[in-house]
Amino acid sequence: MNDKTSATNHSNDDLFAAIDLGSNSFHMIIAREAHGQMQVIDKHKEMVRLRSGLDKNGKLTEKAFKEGIGCLERFGQRIKDIPADNVRAVGTNTLRNAKNSREFLNQAKVALGHGIQIIAGQEEARLIYLGVAHGLPASDEQRLVMDIGGGSTEYIIGKQFENSHLTSTEMGCVSITQTYFPKGKITNENFNEAVSKCRQMLRPHRRTLRKKGWDIAIGASGSIKSIGQILETNSWAESGISLQGMLELTKELIKSGSAENAKIAGLKDERRPVLIGGLAILIATFIELNIEHMQVSQNALREGLVFDTLGRLHAEDVREISVSAMQQWMKVDIEQADMVAKTAKSLYKQSHNTWDLHSEGYDVKRLLKWACRLHEIGVSISFKRSRHHSAYLIAQADMAGFNQQEKQILSALVVNQRGKYSTDTHEDIDDSFKRIMPYLTVLLRLAVRIHRGRDLEQVDPILRIIDDTELHLEFDENWLDEHPLTRLDLETEAKYLEKFGFTLTCE
User: Fold this and answer.
1) How far apart are CA 473 and CA 437, in angstroms?
2) What is the dihedral sign for C-alpha 293, 297, 302, 305?
3) Which ranges carry the Ppx/GppA phosphatase C-terminal domain (predicted)?
């Protein structure tokens, strides 16, 4: 039996799962890595319609809550044998904005068996492009990729696997349908009003997108795929999507009075409730960006998640690039940041087993390293309150590869690198990670203090931990005598640490 179990586990080591908790539907894709390529072996989609389940106070209703959790329980059954590091689950627009999102995510983690990370619109756009690009043949063409979600629409310009521009707008097929077609009734007047509003929302981005230009336009997402299929089925377009074809579809919908009553070949029942909103967004996009023809991609966000996960496991983590870019942008003293990171790494190695510095779904050691590398970015704004500037920049910047929870962790670590320790910054951090935040903060604070002298000297003190909170640092003989500023700094730090439950002695 053990041999059989071992064989089963081994056979799943090359499986990857990506789960997209969208505003209109939840998607799951299971893929296997084969010779550097992804072979899809299973897909599952459920029309949960979270966005439609928001009440007037911006909270998910009990019905939406229950349906979402039920779907994730079914997803959880399918992925229970896939290694945790190979599973990525993300939430998008509705979960970014719902007032009770945190309660939903806590229950969702139990149902799915994995944590769910909320990603910003820019990160959503990056992953969409990555997924679409991996489904296209090799080419040097400049691409415009568009994805219509339930609550947001993303536009990306890029070549091959690299994007050069990301835009996320607050219009989606569900939100536009709810606002302009609340009872499902479609008229010439309300449709024109919806298109005008979508054009207005896209207009601030039009100049930048058109200036960058593209050789080919590609659409992803359920709305675009559905519209493309309807146009082809009814011979309103030879292939893909055209403006004239969409205008023919619009005429039929207005003639029918609603999508629910429309007798249109190729229109699936699951798409009827939000088709008109997606159509308004797509027509507005064609007009504003002067698009003549759009191809339809079968890949989208979930495929991008799979390829991004594979990249992380093969040391191609885009988060490393984001951290380096931020350092360069804010003119960070790279050598100093690296020395702080090396000392923090040494302290981590000596303490991670004693303090159990592990949290499912997070690379704790790398988060500590990134906090070290970014702890001084605020100095470029002002030395005064620089740690607060650093924390703000991390929390607010669009950093490719990072989800909101990771940025909150980094921001909380950085703001507490010196001075008074505040746990107020921990409020929105996952409970599973909140437990280890004080320990990681201590490691960062010690590393920063040790390198106060900025002499770029590698320092590897021995860290002894007694009864969890009693710390003792041992340096090489005479080192503290030769570094009196550091000795004073560590004595000052001992007073701060004492206020949040740690004692520190040095020799």
Assistant:
1) 20
2) negative
3) 318-493
Given the DSSP bridges, would you call strands 87-91 and 15-21 parallel, antiparallel or unpaired?
A: parallel
Helix (H) or strand (E) holding 345: helix 334-355
pLDDT in tens, 279-316: 999 999 999 999 999 999 989 999 999 888 887 766 66
Spatial neighbors of 253 by CB under 8 A, at least 6 apart, are 186, 191, 259, 262, 264, 275, 276, 279
Sorted by where each starts, the structural domains of the chain and their CATH numbers stand as 2-119 (3.30.420.40), 136-297 (3.30.420.150), 317-506 (1.10.3210.10)
Residues 429 and 435: their CA atoms lie apart, in Å, by 10
**What are the backbone angles phi and psi of residue 35, rounded to the nearest 5°?**
55, 45
Q: Nearest-CA neighbor of 365 among 440, 435, 450?
A: 440
**Backbone dihedral angles phi then psi of residue 442, each to the nearest 5 degrees:** -60, -45
Name the pTM for this structure: 0.77
Tokens for 263, please give them. Answer: 């007798």
Phi/psi at 504 (5° precision): -130, 130
Tokens representing residue 148 in the block: 């219509």
CA distance linking residue 348 with residue 357, whole number of Å: 8
Q: How far apart are CA 267 and CA 274, in angstroms?
A: 11
**What is the structure's pLDDT at 317?**
79
Distances (CA, A) of 310 to 27, 303, 316, 423, 507: 19, 11, 8, 35, 45
> By C-alpha distance, which of 313, 409, 356 is closest to 85?
313
What residue has token string 């586990």? 9
Radius of gyration of the chain (CA): 26
Which residues are CB-contacts of 43 (< 8 A; sequence separation ≥ 6)?
Answer: 27, 28, 29, 30
Q: CA distances (Å), 13 to each of 33, 141, 338, in order?
A: 9, 35, 34
Instruction: Confirm if 379 and 363 have CB atoms less than 8 A apart.
Output: no
* H helices, E strands: number in the chain: 20, 14
Q: Band of the pLDDT at 5, cuts 50, 70, 90?
A: very low
Structure tokens at 292: 């003549």
Element (H, E) at 224: helix 222-233
Note the pLDDT tens digit of each residue in 440-461. Answer: 999 999 999 999 888 888 888 9
